[in-house]
Amino acid sequence: MRFSLQFVVSVVALLLALASAVAFYFAIGREFTIPLLLVAVVNLEAVAILVFLMTRGIISPLQRIRSIMGKVGEGDFRTRVGLLPTQEMQELGLALNAMISHLESVSEKEKRVDRLRTEFLSLAAHQLRTPLVEVKWALQVILDGERGTLSATQKELLQKTYASNEGMITLIGNLLDITKIEEGKYLSNLSLVQIEDMCVSIVELHAEEASRQKITLEILPPPEPLPKVLVDEEKIKLAIQSLVGNAIHYTPPGGRVTASFFSDTKEVGVAVQDTGIGIPKEEQARIFEQFFRATNAKKLGKIGTGLGLYLAKNIVEAHGGRIWFVSEEHKGSDFRMALPLR
Fold first, then answer.
1. pLDDT at 23 over 60
2. CA gap 80, 103 in Å, rounded
3. Which of 123, 190, 191, 336 is most buried, with most CB under 10 Å away?
C-alpha cells in the first residue's frame, strides 16, 4: 500500500500533537517536571513546522494552478502546469494540461474556420461588386432616357430595381468593411480632424433625403470649437453616416433628427437624436449585432442590411472610443459616440 507525502506528514503531525497534549497534562496537571515540559514544547514546535511545510506544499501549487487557469481564461492556451510536489497534485496538473491542450486544439480549429470564412466573404464580395456596378450603370443610362423614352410604369419599375441594386452595393461594401475589421486592417490613415466640420458635411449630404421624407434635419454647433481628434477620417465618417442615416430611415414624416456635440478633457463626442420608431426594450441588447434588425424596423418594409450599427460600433471601438444609446419605442432614440483625445 502506497501513502502520499501529505498523508504521512499529517499522521506524524497528529501523533506529535497527541504526544504534546499528554506531556502537558503530566507536566502541569500531575507531575510537573522540566523534561516533560521541554518535550511538550519541542513537540509543539515540530507540529508547527510540519503544518507549515504541509500548508506550503498545498497552497503554493494551488496558487500556481490558479495563475495558469487565469491565463487560460484570457485565451492563452500555450501555458502549462509544471512539476508539482505531490503525487495527487501531479495527477491534477496532468489533467489540467490535457484540458488546456484540448482547448488549444478547439481554438485553432475555430481560428481556421474564421479565417476561411473571412477569405470567402472577401472573395465573394469582390466578385459581386463589379457586376452590380455594371447593372447600376446600365439602369442609370435607361432611367436618364438615353435609350429612349420610358412610360411611367416602366420608369417606376426600373427605379425600384435601381434602389434594390443600390442596397446590394451597400451590402457588399459593408461586407468588405467587415472583412477588413476581422483581418485587423481597418484603420489605415490616421490624421487630426475637426469632428464638427465632418458632421456638417454629412448632414448636408443627407439633407435632400430628409427633405424628401418631410423630416427636419438640423445640426447644433458646439458653443466653441472642439479639439481635434486623431482618427481615420473615412472610417469615422462611415460611423456618423450610419447614425444619421438610420435616424432618418426610421423617423416618420413630420419628425425631427438632430445632430449635436459634447466634450470634456478626455473625449469628444457626437450625438444623433431622432423622434422615430425607437427600439423595443427587449431587443436593445442586440442592436449592435451583425445583420440584426429590430422587429418594428422590419415591419416598416424598408430595405436594411443590419450592418450599419455593427460597423459603427467596431469603427468607434477600433479608435479606442465608445458608442451607446438610449431609446424608447414610439418615441425615438438618442445614439452617442465618443472618441478619446490624444
1. no
2. 12
3. 336
Same domain, 145 and 172: yes
Residue ending a domain, choose from 43, 74, 107: 107
- Domains identified in the chain, total number: 3
Q: Domain end: 155, 182, 209, which one?
A: 182
One domain for residues 170 and 210: no
Alpha-carbon distance of 12 to 310, in angstroms, equals 64
pLDDT digit string, tens, across residues 304-337:
778 889 889 988 998 999 999 999 999 999 999 9
Model-level pTM? 0.58
Positive/negative CA dihedral, 124, 129, 135, 139: positive
| CB contact set of 296 (below 8 Å; sequence gap of 6+) | 277, 278, 279, 280, 329
Torsion angle defined by CA atoms of residues 42, 48, 54 and 57, in that order, rounded to the nearest 10 degrees: -110
Residue 3, pLDDT score? 46
Residue from 133, 139, 210, 129 nearest 174 by CA: 129
Cell matching residue 221: 454647433
Report how far Cα 99 is from the mean position of its chain's Cα atoms.
26
Whether 19 and 78 share a structural domain: yes
